[in-house]
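re: the backbone from monday

yeah here it is again, tokenized this time
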């Protein structure tokens, strides 16, 4: 763990205890810009080309520190070589410097050659600059009391939980659960590490016959996606010291790396074993549950539903709700994950959404939320109304976690992590999914960047209902439509969210607006899907139909 900011930055409160000479470092160093807020100064510097930014850093001690803000050099790197693989080395400035020294004929960005060594400067007091460092370096055991000990979610061994009990006790009631020893037969648990995935990706050929496969990684603070080889990404992950590290979210992993499909299977609780009317007529009420109903649309026509996820320690996803009112299951193949859930009727502290959920304001990263809102989170844990209390759990490698639809959830990687997740619609959440598809087509995600293959949002409801009528027991659809028209049962999460709108806003105190340029409207999972079409949209407000674990 770093002992201090590499450039010597301290929080602004330290300026009250420093000597007069240190106070003059900023005033003299920034000159006419000294009255500007740090965020405004960073915005100005972001418009400079690399040569000018490097030149400005030589004008004074204060400008040296501000001009070396990591985000500035990351953005320059991503914009200078869009679509080319990044070879990250120690810092974004060093990566950029090495890339500039290469021939234009070379494919990789960055090559070990020179070395940038930060100089520690006394007299720079900036909450903005210090926050970006503290978000990944803070000791969470002291900054967030209870972070590693709170456990409010059942952990059940698979030997004591069959599929019917899972549906009855958890899925039908829309309650999260961790299931242990459910995927012990996965080859992925033994094979999938950074070396294995890197070697497999180097040995596979894409459609063009080339051996070099690229994978997209995104961040809430980055203006566009970065492209890495898997070996390059894991190299970046081992070195990254950022507020919001780039997160690899690959929806096409099974197409790019077909061998990976042989290393895992869908856990028994989520397998689609009976979708036809014939099979349904012999099933019990609980057993008649249909899993993965979106599969009736076909592999290419359905919304995106599975992802390979890789991220370094302290990376993760800020609070979000999974897309299209789907449930999900997630397995961390390597590394531990901390999950924090808020029920559908209560917004997490620091999160505010519009009435229809289309626009959401959130902290920029998990680290910022933990350092800024943990005290309010502790108060929510003691709420008199138990239905508003958050739920927390640490999931170990090899465990399966069920993520109910409609829940806000945030995930923090406690180690370097490799994970696999599937989103699905079953009989348990079909009514909520149908209501969402019919009433909120503008928030549907996972199809827009595939107009030639996927059913588009304006048609998805009608096409989905038609396919269900043809391929699924009519009683399943009839019940879902009846519950939907009647306002749903107790588990209708959309009904709960609309009914308790005022309560949600009261729970979401302390708004933090997203501060950075870039980002996508459809967010984390859709960052990997919507390509460059949405990468220039503003992040001040955006649709929250995505997930990234």
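seq for it, each position gets an aa:
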């Amino acid at each position: 763990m770093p002992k201090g900011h590499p450039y010597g930055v301290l929080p602004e409160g330290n300026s009250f205890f420093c000597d007069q000479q240190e106070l003059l470092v900023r005033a003299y160093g920034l000159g006419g810009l000294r009255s500007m807020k740090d965020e405004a100064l960073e915005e100005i510097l972001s418009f400079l080309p690399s040569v000018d930014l490097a030149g400005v850093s030589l004008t004074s001690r204060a400008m040296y520190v501000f001009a070396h803000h990591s985000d500035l050099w990351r953005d320059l790197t991503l914009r200078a070589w869009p679509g080319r693989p990044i070879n990250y080395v120690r810092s974004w400035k060093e990566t950029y410097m090495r890339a500039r020294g290469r021939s234009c004929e070379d494919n990789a960005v960055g090559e070990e050659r020179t070395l940038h060594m930060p100089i520690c400067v006394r007299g720079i007091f900036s909450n903005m600059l210090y926050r970006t460092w503290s978000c990944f370096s803070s000791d969470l055991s002291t900054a967030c009391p209870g972070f590693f000990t709170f456990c409010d979610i059942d952990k059940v061994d698979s030997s004591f939980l069959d599929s019917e009990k899972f549906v009855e006790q958890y899925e039908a009631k829309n309650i999260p659960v961790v299931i242990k020893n459910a995927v012990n037969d996965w080859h992925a648990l033994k094979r999938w590490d950074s070396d294995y995935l890197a070697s497999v990706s180097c040995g596979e050929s894409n459609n063009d016959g080339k051996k070099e496969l690229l994978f997209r990684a995104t961040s809430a603070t980055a203006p566009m996606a970065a492209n890495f080889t898997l070996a390059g990404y894991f190299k970046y992950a081992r070195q990254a010291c950022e507020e919001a590290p780039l997160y690899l979210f690959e929806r096409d992993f099974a197409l790019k790396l077909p061998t990976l499909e042989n290393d895992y299977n869908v856990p028994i609780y989520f397998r689609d074993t009976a979708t036809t009317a014939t099979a349904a007529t012999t099933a019990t009420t609980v057993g008649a549950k249909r899993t993965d109903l979106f599969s009736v649309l076909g592999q290419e026509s359905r919304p995106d539903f599975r992802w390979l996820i890789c991220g370094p320690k302290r990376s993760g996803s800020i609070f979000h709700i999974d897309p299209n009112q789907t449930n999900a299951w997630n397995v961390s193949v390597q590394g531990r994950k901390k999950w924090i859930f808020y029920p559908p009727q209560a917004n997490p502290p620091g999160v505010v959404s519009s009435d229809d959920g289309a626009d959401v304001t959130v902290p920029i990263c998990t680290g910022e939320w933990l350092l800024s809102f943990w005290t309010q989170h502790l108060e929510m844990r003691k709420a008199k109304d138990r239905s508003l209390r958050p739920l927390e759990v640490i999931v170990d490698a090899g465990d399966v976690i069920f993520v109910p639809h409609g829940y806000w959830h945030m995930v923090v990687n406690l180690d370097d992590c490799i994970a696999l997740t599937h989103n699905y619609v079953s009989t348990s959440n079909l009514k909520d999914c149908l209501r969402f598809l019919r009433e909120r087509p503008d928030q549907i995600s996972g199809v827009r960047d595939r107009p030639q293959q996927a059913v588009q949002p304006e048609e998805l409801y009608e096409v989905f209902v038609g396919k269900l009528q043809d391929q699924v027991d009519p009683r399943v659809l009839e019940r879902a439509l009846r519950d939907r028209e009647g306002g749903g049962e107790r588990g209708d999460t959309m009904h709960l969210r609309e009914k308790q709108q005022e309560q949600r806003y009261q729970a979401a105190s302390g708004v933090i607006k997203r501060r950075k340029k870039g980002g996508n409207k459809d967010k984390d999972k859709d960052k990997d899907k919507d390509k460059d079409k949405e990468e220039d949209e503003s992040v001040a407000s955006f649709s929250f139909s995505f997930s990234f674990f």
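The longest strand covers residues 327-334. The two ends are 24 Å apart (CA to CA).
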